[in-house]
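Exam revision sheet. Question 4 asks you to relate a sequence to its structure. Input first:
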Amino acid sequence: MSKKPTKLTDSEKLSIARNAAEGGEKAIKSLAAEHNVNEDEIRSWIREMNAGNVTDDDEVTLDVTDDFAKSIEFGATFDKLNYNRLTFWSVFGTAVILLFIVAVMFMHEYTRTSSLQDRSEQSIYYDIEQLERTDQLKLDSFGVVDPDAGIYRIPIDSAITIIATD
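Answer key, structure tokens:
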């Protein structure tokens, strides 16, 4: 085989492809050597030109079912839906989503009430702490309780000292 490939027309390629398809692998090898082409190239011609199985004289028939013929006329296959299964999964999915929403609402309510309770406890503690501070200031300071009756307030430490010295 020479290194220079020969140029063939489409009709020559078709003829070579038909002869190769009819003769098998031995025919492909001999035709490749005879026409100075690669064996893979001849195989690709057989595929491209459909020279392997069908000739111009052969008649092709296709047996189809009625469903297939109706689908071809319709342009798509007909849907065969299982309505029981479709209804079940729709109801089940809706129920799951509703349960999820209710669970989220309960979680929100629980979180809200616990935060309100924490805030009220902190508020009561703050109020008690504030009352203790004001009472401590009264105990540690001088002041007038009732000026008409002549009642005055003195710090508790001073009162203890006066009582102890009397």
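Marking note for examiners. The beta strands are 143-146, 151-153.
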